[in-house]
Specification:
The chain is an all-alpha fold. The protein is built from 14 helices and no strands.
C-alpha cells in the first residue's frame, strides 16, 4: 500500500477588492443602456407630481402667471425697471422667468434625488448618474406648459414670436446642462450633509436676483459685465429671451463666457459625483 504524500497547506494571502475607476465614456454608455429605466423614472415622477391635487397640471400655468404679475407690479411699475427689445415688460420678464422656473425646479428636485431613491441605491444597481439626470428632465414638462402663457402674452399684446424661436432647444439645453452640473453637486453633497435642502431656497433666491430675469443684461454697467457673464444662467436666460423676442444683436460674449462656466461646472459636478457615489449606500 503506497503512502499518500502529505500536501502542505499554502498560506492564504489576504487581498482587498476595490471598485475600479471607470471612464466617463463607460458611464455615458451605461446610462444609454438603461434609457428605458430613465423613461420609467421620468414618467413615475410626472404622475406623482400632481397626485391628489385638485388643479393638477394647471399649477404649471398658475404659478408662472402669478409670478409674472407680481414681478411686473413690483419691478415694472413700482421700481420702474424697463425691459429690452422694446417689448412690454410682462413679455420681457416672463420670457426670462420661464427659463429660471425650469432651472429652479431642477435644483429642488436634484438636491433630494439620491436620498429619495434609497431603494434604487441600496437594493438594485442602476447607473447613479441617471438619478440626478432624471430630475433635470421632468421640469421640461412644466416648461412646455408654461410656454403656452408666453404665447398668450404675444397674442394679448398683438405681437408674434421671432423666427429665432427655432433656437429655443439650444438655449434650453444650456439651462439643462447647467442644472445637471449643479444638481450633481447638490445631490452628492446632500447625501453627506442633510442641511443642503434647507439652505437651497435661500441660495436659489439670491441666484435669481443676480441673473438677468427682472432686468436685461445691458442694465449692468460695462465695467461689471464680467460679473454677470460668469453666471452660468446668464447665457440661457439672455439667449432664450433673444430667441423669442428676436430683436437686436445677440450678446455673443455673454453666451460664450456663461457657456464656458456651465461646462466647467458640469464637468466638475460629474467628477465629484463619480468620486463619491461608491459611498452613497453606506451614508444613506
Amino acid at each position: 500500500m503506497t503512502a499518500v504524500p502529505e500536501v502542505q497547506a499554502q498560506p492564504i494571502r489576504p487581498f482587498r477588492i476595490r471598485a475600479g475607476q471607470r471612464s466617463l465614456l463607460a458611464e455615458v454608455q451605461e446610462v444609454w443602456a438603461y434609457r428605458e429605466l430613465l423613461g420609467f423614472l421620468v414618467w413615475r415622477d410626472i404622475k406623482i407630481r400632481y397626485v391628489q391635487t385638485i388643479l393638477g397640471p394647471l399649477w404649471a400655468l398658475i404659478v408662472p402667471f402669478i409670478t409674472m404679475i407680481l414681478l411686473t407690479v413690483i419691478f415694472g411699475h413700482v421700481a420702474g425697471l424697463k425691459g429690452e427689445y422694446k417689448v412690454p415688460y410682462p413679455i420681457f420678464v416672463f420670457s426670462g422667468n420661464l427659463i429660471w422656473i425650469y432651472f429652479s425646479g431642477c435644483l429642488s428636485g436634484s438636491a433630494r434625488s439620491v436620498i429619495s431613491n434609497i431603494n434604487l441605491i441600496t437594493k438594485v444597481y442602476v447607473p447613479r448618474l441617471m438619478i440626478p439626470l432624471e430630475s433635470t428632465v421632468v421640469p421640461v414638462i412644466d416648461f412646455a406648459l408654461a410656454f403656452l402663457i408666453l404665447l398668450g402674452l404675444f397674442g394679448y399684446y398683438h405681437r408674434a414670436p421671432h423666427w429665432h424661436t427655432v433656437l429655443i432647444p439650444f438655449f434650453l439645453g444650456l439651462a439643462l446642462l447647467t442644472a445637471f452640473g449643479v444638481g450633481l453637486w447638490l445631490s452628492a453633497l446632500t447625501v453627506r450633509f442633510r442641511d443642503i435642502p434647507f439652505v437651497l431656497p435661500l441660495l436659489t433666491q439670491l441666484w435669481f436676483y443676480v441673473s438677468p430675469v427682472i432686468y436685461g443684461s445691458t442694465f449692468i454697467p460695462p465695467r461689471y459685465q464680467w460679473l454677470i457673464a460668469i453666471n452660468p444662467m446668464t447665457g440661457p436666460i439672455d439667449g432664450f429671451r433673444w430667441a423669442v423676442l428676436g430683436r437686436g444683436v445677440p450678446h455673443y460674449e455673454l453666451f460664450a463666457t456663461s457657456f464656458g462656466v456651465g461646462v466647467i461646472l458640469t464637468a466638475s459636478g460629474i467628477w465629484y459625483f463619480l468620486r463619491t457615489e461608491r459611498s452613497f449606500a453606506d451614508l444613506i
